[in-house]
Write a structure and sequence with these properties.
Blueprint: E1 8-17, E2 21-24, H1 25-29, H2 36-43, E3 47-50, H3 59-74, E4 83-87, H4 98-105, E5 113-117, H5 123-136, E6 142-150, H6 160-163, E7 168-178, E8 185-193, E9 201-202, H7 214-219, E10 225-226, H8 228-250, E11 259-262, H9 267-277, H10 288-291, H11 298-308, E12 317-324, E13 328-335
Parallel strand pairs: 4-5, 4-6, 11-12
Antiparallel strand pairs: 1-7, 2-3, 6-7, 8-13, 9-10, 12-13
Helix pairs in contact: 3-4, 8-9
Bound molecules: acetyl coenzyme *A.
């Protein structure tokens, strides 16, 4: 069967929420042998947000607050959402999934499909690209894509090589059909993964093979582990390659791009990637200084902030570019 016209998709609206508590590099100086100067020079990070463990700022709480903003700015009701894709490696609980918990918190009663995806820092880009496909095949009309993380619970706060990097937060986008003639649309997508990089960033303890024991708690081996140098090298190559692929698929060049919204893991990774691509830093959205690495939440938070402050406008060509543990990777090229 042929259809009269191809369905196009677009980002309808965005939202974000970050925890109230700010932890600065100076706070970290009191916890581990580090300095504001070292952290800022090596990573670009000045502070990060830390979720309250008292409640109200767990991943689905943050997602609820961020989604209300996105619904409000789009003039939509919760029941207009007909699918939730929740990207996180720090879900509220093991079962049920966070998307289901969020569906309840938002008061969605239409029994829409709810799924979690655990693809680390590429999670939001995976979610947007999956939403694009679900909408194009007619499975959904308005997909809520969430990147929400509470990494503060998975970090060894006595290990200076890792605790300085991460933070908590949430960003969301509602992806839906673009009307005919609407210039806003997703132009091209790319997703991939390379399991051979699984040793660079992982957390093997706490799964089926090695449940957490008292010994793990004692020697702190249940936390995230990272080979920072290896991640750094592979990240820059991957981000540059991602960008080239989505641009080629859409028949565009880097000159056409108004804004690059990269995963915020380290400002030096972002700068090196921009150099590899030949992109001026003026085109790159960087907010790692305020939030650190919030994994699946970095891209939607950076995107939302740049829309809010007027940098990214409707009609601008925007490139999402991400990589994460796995190693997962992905990019989206879209006219906002
Ligand atoms: N404060 C002070 N000194 C430190 C700290 C710290 N917080 N951490 C490490 N050091 C020391 C090290 O012990 C080492 O000392 P030595 O020379 O006496 O042995 C020295 O600083 C240099 O350490 P390196 O690890 O070589 O520092 P580097 O410049 O590589 O920076 C960093 C480390 C920031 C982790 C960097 O490698 C990086 O950002 N890598 C990528 C991280 C990343 O991409 N993470 C997430 C990816 S996936 C995802 O986002 C989910």
């Amino acid at each position: 069967m042929t259809t009269s016209h191809e369905t196009h998709t677009k980002i309808i609206s965005t939202g974000m929420y970050v925890p109230e508590r700010i932890m600065t590099n100076f706070d970290l100086e009191k916890m581990v042998d580090t300095s504001d100067e070292w952290i800022f020079e090596r990573t670009g990070i000045k502070s990060r947000r830390i979720s309250s463990t008292e409640g109200g700022e767990f991943p689905t709480d943050m997602a609820q607050k961020a989604t209300w903003k996105a619904l409000e700015s789009a003039g939509l009701e919760p029941n207009d959402i007909d699918m939730i894709i929740f990207a996180s490696v720090t879900p509220d609980q093991k079962l049920p999934n966070s998307a289901n918990l969020l569906q309840q918190k938002l008061g969605i009663t239409n029994k829409c499909a709810c799924m979690d995806i655990a693809v680390a820092c590429s999670g939001f880009v995976y979610g947007v690209n999956m939403a694009n496909s679900f909408i194009k095949t007619g499975m959904a009309k308005k997909v809520l894509v969430v990147g929400s993380e509470m990494l503060s619970t998975e970090v060894d706060w006595s290990d200076r090589s890792i605790c300085i990097l991460f933070g908590d937060g949430c960003g969301v986008a509602i992806v839906g059909e673009a009307d005919e003639g609407d210039t806003s649309r997703i132009l091209s997508t790319h997703l991939g993964s390379d399991g051979s990089g699984k040793e660079f960033f992982n957390q093997p303890v706490g799964g089926a093979i090695e449940p957490i024991t008292e010994q793990h708690l004692k020697d702190k081996s249940h936390y995230m582990r990272m080979k920072g140098g290896e991640m750094f090298k592979v990240a820059t190559r991957t981000l540059a390659e991602n960008a080239r692929i989505v641009l080629e698929k859409a028949g565009k060049t880097l000159d056409d791009v108004d804004w690059i919204v990269p995963h915020q893991a380290n400002v030096r990774i972002i700068e090196t990637t921009a150099k590899l691509l030949g992109a001026p830093m003026e085109k790159v959205i960087v907010n790692i200084g305020d939030y650190g690495n919030t994994s699946a939440a970095t891209v939607p938070i950076a995107f939302h902030e740049a829309i809010q402050d007027g940098r990214i406008k409707r009609g601008d060509l925007v490139l999402f570019d991400a990589f994460g543990a796995g190693l997962t990777f992905g990019a989206t090229l879209l006219t906002y």
